Here is the input.
Amino acid sequence: MAQYILPGATLGVLGGGQLGRMFCVAARTMGYQLVVLDPDPESPAGRIADNHIQADYDDHTALDDLARRCDGITTEFENVPAQSLRYLSQRTQVHPGAPALEIAQNRNREKSYAIAAGLLPVPNAPIKAGTDIAAVIEYTGLPAILKRATLGYDGKGQFVVDSVEQATRAFDSMGGVECVLEKKVELAAEVSAIVCRNASGETACFPVAENRHRNGILHQSIVPARVEPSVSVTAQQQALALAEELEYVGILAVEFFVDMDGALYFNEMAPRPHNSGHYTKDACVTSQFEQQVRMMCGLRPGDTRLISPVVMINLLGELWQPDWTALANEPGVKLHLYGKHQARPGRKMGHFNSLARDVETALQVADRIYAQLAGH
Ligand SMILES: Nc1ncnc2c1ncn2[C@@H]1O[C@H](COP(=O)(O)OP(=O)(O)OP(=O)(O)O)[C@@H](O)[C@H]1O
Ligand SMILES: [Mg+2]
Here is the structure.
């Protein structure tokens, strides 16, 4: 039987970045109390929660405190120690659970689960020692990409390589940590499918987003994605299959590559709301953050219908101070800022969603506004 956590109850989140902040806003709107655990005194989510426990993620006194206060706990980033999640789950409800997090923390592990669920990564193999490299390149071909297996994000810890020597140098430069070497495919598009599943096994999919990156960081998400409808449907089906394989409870984001022949490849997954799902805040009946609340509380998935074509653009630190007058006269543009005091290049400070009757118009407006904000 479904056990609901209902409004008035207290929800906890491990991590106080922008994803935690948007989760808190959604949960508070629905009538929940919020506790954030994050070591940073200035964390975007901590500053708007009812309580901010300022401590490390493996501080047992802090975890005890969090568990005592909360009816349910979730995470906003995958690098929380799985051990802490396990510890918390002995005391209160935690979704997603430690096993899913442990899988998502390692690129090699997540690829093997994806394969088990019927998804197809690009040709790749783990690199555990420099001596593995030549044989793996034999298999993947060149150019290839060497990525650290753990702790990579926004394109960090990745090297495009054109020879065994280059790959070996890159591997050594990362201190010989576990890596994966994968074929560099020519991309026609990148898409992501965000799905959700609750403890009763009820699921839903958000519309697939088409994602464009700049310098390894997501720049823009376009919805509906401009790919063959069958590609979008397959991406959703595969993301759901992965959620089932993991017996996942929460929001699962799956990134895919589409190659020049239209083939779909699994890239990676995130056990949480995803930057490419920020468009749902303004353009779907239910946002990915409300959906996160619903999943951890055992509620039915909210309606994921797209209300309007939309383009999301990230606002990074190098843009600061943007010229906000660009937004003064734009009824279809919705700004979201994360309350970060310090702007650094590459740091995600906010985003905006451009909504219009068709995706081309949304894109034109988004690009124009972005150029104006950047002062071009
Ligand atoms: N095998 C590949 N072939 C072609 N392009 C690739 C490949 N792997 C990665 N890329 C490009 O680099 C980007 C970042 O790669 P990936 O998603 O693995 O890294 P990440 O650091 O986890 O990124 P993020 O956390 O922002 O999603 C991809 O979105 C894609 O544009
Ligand atoms: Mg990625």
